[in-house]
Amino acid sequence: MNGVRTQTLEAGTEFEARGPVVIGLEDTVRWAAASGDYTPFHFDPAAAADRGFRGPVAHGPWKSAVLRSLLDEWLGQSSTLVEFDARYLSADCVGDELTFGGVVSSVEAADDGSRRVRCDLWARRADGGQSVAATAVVVVDAQPGGGLPVDRLKAAVKLGEDAGSFVYRVDRNDILSFVDAIGGWSRADDDDTIAPTTFFAALDPVERRDLDLDAFLQRLPFPMRGGGNAFNEVDYVRPIREGDVITVTTRYTDVYEKKGSRGTLLFRVRTNELRDADGQLVATTRCGHVLTYDVPDPAATGEASA
Amino acid sequence: MTDLRAAVRPELGRRPGTGWAWSGELAALVGSVGTVTTVALSAAQITRLRAAVARVAGLERAAGHDRPVRATLADYCPDPLVFALESGLPRPQILDRVIDGGSAWEQRLDPGIGTLTAVPRITEIVERVTSAGRRLIRTCYETELRTSRGALVGWARGFSLDLEDGDA
User: Fold this and answer.
1) Which helix (H) or strand (E) holds B122?
2) How many CB pairs below 8 Å do chains A and B form together?
3) Contact yes or no for B104 and A84 at CB 8 A
4) From residue A173, how far is each of A65, A196, A243, A260 by CA, in Å?
5) CATH classification of A6-140 is 3.10.129.10, yes or no?
6) What is the homologous superfamily of the domain A150-293 according to CATH?
7) B55, B67, B74 ranked by CB distance to A68: nearest
8) Average pLDDT score over residue span A142-169
9) Do the strands B37-40 and B115-129 form a parallel or antiparallel pair, or are they unpaired?
């Protein structure tokens, strides 16, 4: 295996070069079929000759794809490629040789506990000239034991502490739009300045994308099988009214995982405290959210690096 | 005035490379938006893309099923330049030959396997002279990809180079 130990990555770490490898017609035809670029000079010798080439020309994006695949192999499944930028510096024909390689240029610690690994990558011709010069940024989320990063998630969401406060002014349009969205409602007192009880859930900073402390969950090296709200609870002192200015303070109260029939379930539970402009408690809401991952048995993956 | 039909269909005519008089016409192309499409990705398509590089990358094993299939933005848009051109965006061809100058992908969210909405546009056209003294026009095609709920997944960028030959 060509992989490196991601825990020891540092600037200057070189990846094991691949090659020289001869570009085959099979490669260009397969890529044409997979990518949809059927421009003839990539696989038809006569079309290539018409354009002044010695033979069918390898697709530039195919060379990028080779480098991306190698990077995935070098850094392992606990990594996610977030940026890749390649320049194609020469036209390489079927029968030409290429060697692919790369080196780590920097490793930076991110706020969420992951590391951003910057790499310089290349494809070189037999004469030593560069065919491709590329840079890549990979987020490495190594987790001891290879399972879900529960401890890291607890730290990221500041479990048990105030995670953030957000102020929302409730206007008439907010209430009317909400009522419309839930299919309408009727009150016995016909007072449409009072928001429906379910409106409390609409003042959730996480659902409103104002608070996002666990975005790295989207980059975990495990297929996500699903997710959604597990429960919503509201304990309210008074209803929300038109004109209210509500300060919502969010606190994560629990993070845990469970084994389920469809995979490993990751639960995040948070409490929102809603206070009005006078500082009076309006409501307390409690939300549970679950994500389902297909987490392989670490012993079965052969993942040496995580 | 530059015949922009030449940009769309180069065979219709080309401008002589005698100066930079076409700059205004090129600048007018910046901001052009191609046809907005949805792109569906399947596990089988990912497998085909992996298989197309597996031999050269020495990863024939990876093309099989011994690893979970993880979708990336590049799987949705493996050739950003071709994707943008197929959306109807013009490709300036004023100098002697056009080539694929590069590709880039910037991923904000794990796209998973499914369907994304793609909005291709021309974001930049730059004219410059190379160190060898040849004129060059570089066009950046950027495709923005979002989920059906509007969440931004990332961008795929393709770069077209319009080059002047050495003896021009």
Assistant:
1) strand B115-129
2) 126
3) yes
4) 49, 13, 11, 41
5) yes
6) Hotdog Thioesterase (3.10.129.10)
7) B74
8) 82
9) antiparallel
Q: Are B92 and B160 in contact (CB under 8 A)?
A: yes
Contact A65 B52 (CB under 8 A): yes
Q: Report ipTM (2 d.p.).
A: 0.85
Query: Model confidence over B41-97: pLDDT tens digits?
Result: 999 999 999 999 999 888 765 444 455 667 899 999 999 999 999 999 999 999 998
Task: Provide the token pair at A99.
Answer: 């060697």
Q: pLDDT tens, A38-77?
A: 999 999 999 999 999 999 999 999 999 999 999 988 887 6
Q: Which residues of A touch B103 (CB under 8 A)?
A: 60-61, 64, 84-86, 88
Kindly list the structural domains of chain B, giving each domain's residue range(s) and its CATH number in brackets, ordered by start.
21-42+70-163 (3.10.129.10)
Nearest to A112 by CA among A66, A57, A151: A151
Closest CA of chain B from A151, distance in Å: 22
DSSP category for residue B20:
S
Q: Which residue has the tokens 């996480």?
A: A206
How far does A106 lie from chain B, in Å, by closest CA?
Answer: 18
**Which chain B residues have any C-beta within 8 angstroms of a chain A C-beta?**
45, 48-59, 62, 67-70, 72, 74, 78-82, 86, 99-110, 112, 159
Burial of A164 (0-12, 13-18, 19+ CB in 10 A): middle
What is the value of pTM for the model shown? 0.70
Candidates B39, B56, B96, B146: best to mutate against A (most CBs of A within 10 A) is: B56
Which residue in chain A is spatially nearest to B96 when comparing CA positions? A51
Q: Token pair for residue B67?
A: 């690893």
From-to residues of CATH 3.10.129.10 in chain A: 6-140, 150-293
Least Cα distance to A87 among B102, B78, B74 occurs for B102
